[in-house]
UniProtKB/TrEMBL annotation:
Gene transcribed to yield this protein: fbp_1
Keywords for the protein's UniProt record, in alphabetical order: Carbohydrate metabolism, Cytoplasm, Hydrolase, Magnesium, Metal-binding
UniProt domain Fructose-1-6-bisphosphatase class 1 C-terminal: residue ranges: 188-321
Subunit structure of this chain's protein: Homotetramer.
InterPro entries cross-referenced by the UniProt entry: FBPase_C_dom (IPR044015), FBPase_class-1 (IPR000146), FBPase_N (IPR033391), FBPtase (IPR028343)
Listed name of the protein: Fructose-1,6-bisphosphatase class 1
Family in the record: Belongs to the FBPase class 1 family.
Gene Ontology MF term list: fructose 1,6-bisphosphate 1-phosphatase activity; magnesium ion binding
Lineage, broadest ranks: Bacteria, Pseudomonadati, Pseudomonadota, Gammaproteobacteria, Moraxellales
HAMAP family in alphabetical order: FBPase_class1
Lineage: superkingdom: Bacteria
Pathway: Carbohydrate biosynthesis
Length: 324
């Protein structure tokens, strides 16, 4: 099995993209080691402050964010970083060729209960060399991404990446600290019997989404004529990894719970990088109607509804929403 470096070389990855991914994996190994020690490394619990989204930060949110920020800022290819945890983008080397966006620790509520969490990243071209990067430089559509991926800290540490030519999966060898390739050209089936959604929000959803899930729960006795299974990791990284491994559909749909927020997930740190992976694996990703990767961002912390995974299911959700 080849390792990450061999894969990046075989893909003819741009030097900047390859170097940035390597930097991110080095931090991923540090985070993975910290998580393994858990309470013994004093990384559990609250940090005692809120992030820009008004969410309580966990100690590990802050640690992971600082590790990534430090490592990427000193990478000469990196012109700037934007993090889910920081109010504004941080400029780095103004002659750098790429911008990096990340959710340092996705699924923070899982940290203290020893469940799966992850790091999500997205790499964009930098088009404003010679000037310090600003928030505006990051406002590029998902289609502009040069690469995206995630590192999942689960029972083992795995990483999925795409450079726009399919999805490859790697597993961290804890002895050699190398990411070893375990899958190439990952593909998602167009149909599925498994769905992921936080159904406690049912009453806040739009009628088409309520109807869609009603059809699932009716199982064999309903219009779909088959039984479905439900899984929810509460860390998007975990749900997307499951879908890349065995298929499925995931949604954090539009809801009226917080009228000022059209969805829970962040376009730039979660929806775009995951949508690129899902599309590259033959799946589909929408906000229920529109392709996520075509959304023109208006702010770096923008939120969007998300419906992604098995192509035929995502098409069906779109049809239900368009019929209304
Ligand atoms: P954090 O970004 O606070 O870690 O939240 C994780 C997440 O954005 C996403 O990874 C999950 O799918 C979703 O939230 C879980 O949301 P619920 O708390 O509503 O289950």
């Amino acid at each position: 099995m080849s390792n990450l470096e061999t894969y990046l070389a075989a893909q003819n990855a741009q030097p900047a993209v390859a170097d940035i991914i390597t930097t991110i994996t080095k931090v991923g190994i540090q985070i993975s080691d910290l998580l393994k020690r858990g309470a013994l490394a004093d990384i559990l619990g609250e940090a005692g402050n809120q992030n820009v989204q008004g969410e309580e930060q966990k100690k590990l949110d802050v640690i992971a964010n600082d590790l990534l920020l430090d490592a990427l800022s000193s990478n000469p290819h990196c012109a700037g970083v934007a993090s889910e945890e920081l109010d504004n983008a941080t400029p780095a080397n103004q002659d750098g060729d790429v911008l990096v966006l990340f959710d340092p620790l996705d699924g923070s509520s899982n940290i203290d209960i020893n469940m799966a969490v992850g790091t999500i990243f997205s790499i964009l071209p930098y088009n404003n060399q010679g000037h310090p990067a600003t928030d505006e430089d990051f406002l590029q559509k998902g289609t502009a991404q040069l690469a995206s991926g995630y590192i999942l800290y689960g029972t083992s540490t795995v990483m999925s990446i795409t450079l726009g030519n399919g999805v490859a999966m790697f597993s961290l060898d804890p002895d050699t600290k190398a990411f070893v390739q375990i899958k190439d050209q990952v593909q998602i089936s167009a149909d599925t019997k498994e769905y992921a959604i936080n159904a406690s929000n049912y009453r806040y959803w739009l009628p088409p989404m309520q109807r869609y899930i009603d059809e699932f729960t009716a199982g064999k006795t309903g219009v779909r004529g088959k039984d479905f299974n439900m899984r929810w990791v509460a860390a998007m990284v975990g749900d997307i990894h499951r879908i890349l491994c065995r298929g499925g559909i995931f949604s954090y749909p539009f809801d009226t719970k917080h009228p000022d927020k059209p969805g829970k997930l962040r376009l730039m740190y979660e929806a775009n990088p995951m949508s690129l992976l899902i599309e590259q694996a033959g799946g589909m990703s929408t906000d229920a109607v529109n392709r996520i990767l075509d959304i023109e961002p208006t702010s770096i912390h923008q939120r969007v509804p998300v419906v992604l995974g098995a192509k035929n299911e995502v098409e069906y959700v779109k049809k239900l929403h368009e019929e209304v």
